[in-house]
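Review session, final week

We close the course with one last complete record, chosen because it touches almost every idea we covered. It is Transcriptional repressor NrdR, a protein from Rhodococcus antarcticus with 150 residues. Go through it on your own first, then we will talk.
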Amino acid sequence: MHCPFCRHPDSRVVDSREADEGQAIRRRRSCPECSRRFTTVETAVLAVVKRSGVTEPFSRDKVVRGVRRACQGRPVDDHALYLLAQQVEEQVRAGGSAEIPSHDVGLAILGPLQDLDEVAYLRFASVYRSFTSAEDFEKEISQLRHHQSG
Ligand SMILES: [Zn+2]
């Protein structure tokens, strides 16, 4: 790891600890050349496999962007979106697989989004599950009601 200050090609780890509830390792490093300190974060790469077969790294930002679209005009702030994305990442990582289909990311979004905002949930679900009729909405809404009473 190059020193970000002087570009010295080597650095020494002075401390490492778990971060993000064990999903990352944070290392404190020291440069033997300029003695400055910096931090690196190491996480396992989680790849999302798209329907086309193309893989891309999992991104919380992408989850936030997708859900934000469904939340337009709804009383949902960025902090709530960030927490949701964190929940989604925890859920897909909990599967223990290094590669997950993008479909599963969508599935992992539905649960927490339902708790966050029902209208946003219905919007997201209608796209994700390709609702084709008002009947599909009715079915989903009756399931929501059931979820609330249960
Ligand atoms: Zn340095």
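Two points worth writing down before the exam:
The pocket of zinc ion is lined by residues 3, 5-6, 8, 31, 33-34, 36 (CB under 6 Å).
The two ends are 53 Å apart (CA to CA).
Good luck, everyone.
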